[in-house]
Design a protein that fits this description.
The chain has 324 residues and is α/β, with parallel strands linked by helices. The protein folds into 2 domains: 161 residues, Glucose-6-phosphate isomerase like protein, domain 1 (Rossmann fold, 3-Layer(aba) Sandwich), CATH 3.40.50.10490; 135 residues, 3-Layer(aba) Sandwich (Rossmann fold), CATH 3.40.50. The strands form 2 sheets. It has a 5-stranded parallel beta sheet, with helices on both faces. Helix 3 links the parallel strand 1 and strand 2. Helix 3 crosses helix 6 and helix 9 packs parallel to helix 11. The longest helix has 23 residues. The protein starts with a helix and ends with a helix. Bound molecules: fructose -6-phosphate. The site of fructose -6-phosphate (F6R) has 15 residues, from helix 3.
């Protein structure tokens, strides 16, 4: 998995080339967008929907379930993401989108999703197969951002934005890997909780999923300011077993910065393991990619410390097999 994390930059480069082949022929007068997918294929939608939320003239939702929200209909663009193309929840939501007359676009490496898209003349883009789906994030993020630009939802220039983010990451790679290694050492043997500002929640979810699947640990995430109104109370009583990873960004609301400071003081009475990880970058996309890449490295270094195989997800395979 270390090699696959290091390959992120190649995946992004190839992903941007593949995205040049995106030909969206559907309606451009939709009133809302839903990006649907699960796990490693759902997270791209979560992150991209937050990237474009402020610029988009239409609401954009991410969905990770069999069914679609009730508002989905003829005026909706549904983007279905499944790396394998065989995830039953995603396939069922696609059937529902078709039944409700929504416009569809599919992103997958193959499987039933691509077969269906071909059979029903649905627009799709095919990405290379053979990776664990979560390691294909360089492909899913590029396809989704370019698509969002093409349909008029994203205003920023995806090629320029993502390429310059990768240049910035590569220039800081030694520091990123050193920070990730030291974080992995600090959180080893601890229960991990990740906090970030609400507009970056997708990035926190990505780190949680990577720690689950690569490092094989349970952990949770929450966002500020919401956690100040509930979870902070749960810190009472002492929690030396918990390590906190605060994913911090310079564009946090000024009151959220203050909230992080006070929350840190409160939590600091109960644990001595609070780690602030400050992103780098001049835009939300760049800052997100900084934390995503650094978080991916944390997960593989932690897997190494825990002596677990970061690639295998036998339990997910078992579950899918049992349901089949
Ligand atoms: C990640 C992973 C899972 C899958 C999820 C959905 O590596 O194995 O999170 O992404 O089970 O499967 P796909 O991505 O094929 O739709």
């Amino acid at each position: 998995m270390k090699e696959l994390v290091a390959d992120f930059f190649n995946h992004v480069g190839e992903g941007l080339k593949i995205a040049e082949g995106i030909k969206y022929t559907g309606s451009k007068t939709f009133k809302n967008v839903v990006i649907t997918g699960l796990g490693g294929s759902g997270i791209g939608g979560r992150i991209v929907s937050q990237w474009v939320a402020n610029e988009s003239q239409v609401p954009i939702y991410s969905n990770s379930n069999y069914s679609l929200p009730n508002f989905v209909g003829k005026d909706t663009l549904v983007v279905a993401c499944s790396y394998s193309g065989n995830t039953e929840e995603t396939l069922e939501s696609v059937d529902e989108a078709i039944a409700r007359g929504a416009t569809l676009f599919c992103i997958s490496s193959g499987g039933k999703l691509i077969d269906l898209a071909k059979a029903k003349n649905i627009d799709f883009i095919q990405i290379p197969g053979g990776l664990p789906p979560r390691a294909a994030i360089g492909y899913s993020l590029t396809q989704l951002t370019v698509l969002m630009k093409q349909v008029g939802v994203a205003q920023f220039a995806p090629f320029k934005e993502i390429s310059s983010a990768c240049e910035m990451l590569q220039a800081n790679l030694d520091e990123i890997k050193a920070t990730a290694k030291s974080c992995a050492e600090k959180i080893h043997h601890k229960q991990v909780v990740i906090y970030t500002e609400a507009m970056y929640e997708g990035v926190a979810i990505r780190l949680r999923q990577q720690l689950n699947e690569n490092a094989k640990i349970l952990c949770w995430h929450h966002v500020l300011p919401e956690m100040n109104h509930n979870e902070l109370v749960g810190w009472a009583g002492g929690h030396k077993e918990i390590a906190v990873l605060n994913l911090r960004n310079e564009d946090e609301h000024k009151r959220t910065k203050e909230r992080f400071k006070i929350s840190g003081e409160i939590m600091g009475r109960h644990t001595d393991n609070i780690i602030d990880i400050n992103s780098k970058g001049s835009s939300r996309v760049q800052r997100s990619l900084y934390h995503i890449h650094l978080g991916d490295w944390i997960s593989v270094y932690l897997a190494e410390l825990r002596k677990v195989d970061p690639i295998e997800v036998k339990v997910i395979d078992f579950l899918k097999g049992t349901l089949a």
